Amino acid sequence: MYLNRTKLSGRIDSKLEKQLTETRDYWKNVLRRIIETILFLSGRGLPFRGSDEHFGSNHNGNYLGILELLSKFDPFLAQHIAVHGNQGKGHTSYYLSKTICNEFIALIANKTRTMNIDQLKKAGYFSISVDFTPDITHMDQLTIILKYVNNDGPVERFITFIHITSHTGANLALCLLNFLKENDINIENCRGQSYDNASNMSGTYTGMQAEIKKCNSLIDYIPCIAHSLNIVGQSAVDCCVEAVSFFVTRWSANAEAVKALFLSYENINEALRKIQNDTLQKQSTRHQASCLSSILGHLETGIMCELWHNILEPFNKCSKSIQSGIIDLYTEINLIESLKIVLQNIRNQYDEYESNGMKRAKNEDYKLTRHRKKFKRNESSFNELNAKESFKINTSYVIIDQLYSVLVHRINAYTTVRDNFKLLSDISMNMQIEDIEGGMKKLLERYPKDFPDDFTNELVFRQRLYH
């Protein structure tokens, strides 16, 4: 009897129920089209709105534009837009306005964030990566990215933006910790943090990484390697007057700029001389060309071109490899370690760079020598170091030694992590059981709660099977 009564036919409210079903299905169909359009645009990072919100306008943006395109092949959507589109203010938009569009974007974002956080909690351990950048309204915001390992392997997920009013390490750390607490993410499960090398982020005492580490001493700070390499180079560029004078571009463009000069030194100089003598050019242009040509004629410029090309070529290759996305920490450290050897070799090749520099500049005199010949003053001060030794020691060695010292300092942050997990990276069939037990002892001293009680026994048992 109950089943019979639930059947629509024969009921006094059958028409009403049918009307409700049709209405419900209608709006479901509308929502499917609206949401798929929003997912399409947001998934590709495309802008939604244009300068107006009128169907039929060429300036109504991607959101309304795509709906118009779909309506050409979808009679259902075409009918909906014809009835409810361009109603103007004060009328119901029926899912076609920017307001409802923003609400759907927020709902989708919240759902995505919740799913990512749920995955992170299942994974257990995680690391954090934070940076800040202004939005389109020039409001500073903190970008939070969480990294963890799920069944598919390591993943990196953007979680949210947080508007900030202060850039101090303490305030940035507080914003992050409050977000983790609000989302029930346990900071005790965090094992790594990675930021750029700005002092408010990387500072040992008051930086964000130090503030976060107060909450959990196991959260190792790993600065961005590519960013570190840029800072290493920039420190060398700024270390002496000759280095600053040589560069007119940012560090990121220096490698290509120096390579172009290295390969086409004489051609560039010849082009400058032609511009200098071209009466059809502006006087300011001819003067600038004359100054640049004169600089290329200095022996020091030729030597600096040789020196920096031999420095930047391996540094640039290393930087590109690090940013390839398919390289692990241990390989990155080995690459950076190899740069130390490169710098040591370059330090011993000054005579070769001087000889090549003379050929490039077609000049065998240093500026210091020319200065002494012209003025013949304070000759006793020049007797201590001749022009070559002065430039080699006060410029060439200063650049190389600055690069080397900063490089060593930057490597230390990564070698600590490498050494902690050396066992897991080096383990092989040929490893001795004593080495495995010693490596696990070191790991357990650092992370006493992170490994199961029988983990050491499992590794030993595995090794015995191989033997």
Rg over C-alpha atoms, rounded to the nearest angstrom: 33 Å
Q: Can you summarize the main beta sheet?
A: 5 strands, mixed
The quaternary structure here is single chain
Shape: flat
Question: What are the segments in which pLDDT stays under 50 over at least 5 consecutive residues?
Answer: none
- Helical content class: 55-70%
Spatially, the strands of the biggest sheet line up as: 3-2-1-4-5
State the distance separating the first and last CA atoms. Answer: 74 Å
Give the domain tally: 4
Order of helices and strands: HHHHHEEEHEHHEHHHHHHHHHHHHHH
Mean pLDDT: 85
The helix count comes to: 22
The helix/strand class is alpha/beta
Strand coverage percent = 5-15%
- The tally of strands reads 5
Summarize this structure as a short list of keywords or feature phrases:
five-stranded mixed sheet; flat; 467 residues; alpha/beta; single chain; Nucleotidyltransferase, domain 5; 4 domains
